Amino acid sequence: MAELTGNMSGKKVEYIELIYDLIFVYLLGRSNALLHSAEGGFPGGGAWFTYLISTLVILQVWYFSSLYINRCGTNGVWDHLFLFVNMYLLYYLADGTRLDWDGHFIRYNAAWGLLLVNHALAYLRQLRRGTRPVWEQAHLRCHFFLLLGQAVVVFAAIPLYGAVHFPLSWLSLLLGFAASFFTHWLDRLVPVEPEHLTERVMLLVVFTFGESIVSLAGYFTGPFGVNTLYFSLTGFLIVAGLLVSYGYLYNHVIDRERTDLGNGYMLLHIVVIVALNNITVALEFMREPEVDDVGKNVLIVASFLLYYIFLSLIAHYAKRQMRGVLRSFLGWLLLSLLFAAAMALTYRNGRLSIGISVLYVYAMFAMLVLRRRRALRDEAAAG
Description:
The chain is mainly α. Helix content is about 75%, strand content about 0%. The chain is built from 13 helices and no strands. It has helices at about 15-35, 45-70, 75-95, 105-125, 135-165, 170-180, 185, 195-215, 225-255, 265-285, 295-315, 330-345, 350-380. Helix 5 (about 135-165) runs antiparallel to helix 6 (about 170-180), helix 11 runs parallel beside helix 13 (about 350-380) and helix 12 (about 330-345) packs antiparallel against helix 13. The longest helix has about 35 residues, at about 350-380.
């Protein structure tokens, strides 16, 4: 059967992958909505648990499918069918993303389990396609059994939920992420296409920023006045500052031709995306006076720190001359401690808190730019 749009020579990101990623933006928005069900105060532990699990499920599915397409995809008919089946099942996952599990638990977990089975069958199909080197066969076989094992855990959790009234399917998440560490040595034997992988990751980060920008629309509603102008401007500046920081890192620091990109690079970005989601939620809380002051300030501080810590860890994949740009944590640490202290002192004043957040975001960006320029000067002097 002829391919739909030709071979993926050079592994460019195809249009079907862009459409596929948009489904995940919708899912992340559904997950964020879980935290807005609290009537005043601050979301409780149950809401946070459900939010975290649903977000990680979404990102793990994206992580699995992205690595599969990167290593095995040809942009052919079977790859399109693989992604279309995933997309269809993801709609059921989105519909089941609710705090009220009772009426949707079976549908949610059935869709999740079938997503894992679809991934497993994709690896099985690759195993049966001609002769492969022994290490590639081991790689494909390992992922087939791991995905099938995760699916068994998810399906088994459905009848158990009726008995224990607690979702045990999240254990499948632990199995999947733990396997990423234990199979790292095997995955390195089957290199990724680095430019395709970095572009896929970058696009999902950008789409996640798109969700943040959409959420900012709430800052522009209501009667126009100083308060509306101030919060809309500061909120927009924060999202813009976070975006240019990642963009600068991607364009000027990351070595997008390294062949050792793979599980580690993607897992670091999963945490970055979780942090961005939390920042989006925190920014929505900042303009809501009924939300607990301590809770929303702790959330925004913790989310910023998580975002920048994992940006700095991505420096492991920097270009040779850029590897010292983010590894010096001292400046970032001191600035972050000052930020946390200032937020603790002003937690009851939303205007001051969001203003301090703007200063912190752009100070961090300035440090990144200045350190890159210093690294370039040092390289020129050494040469």
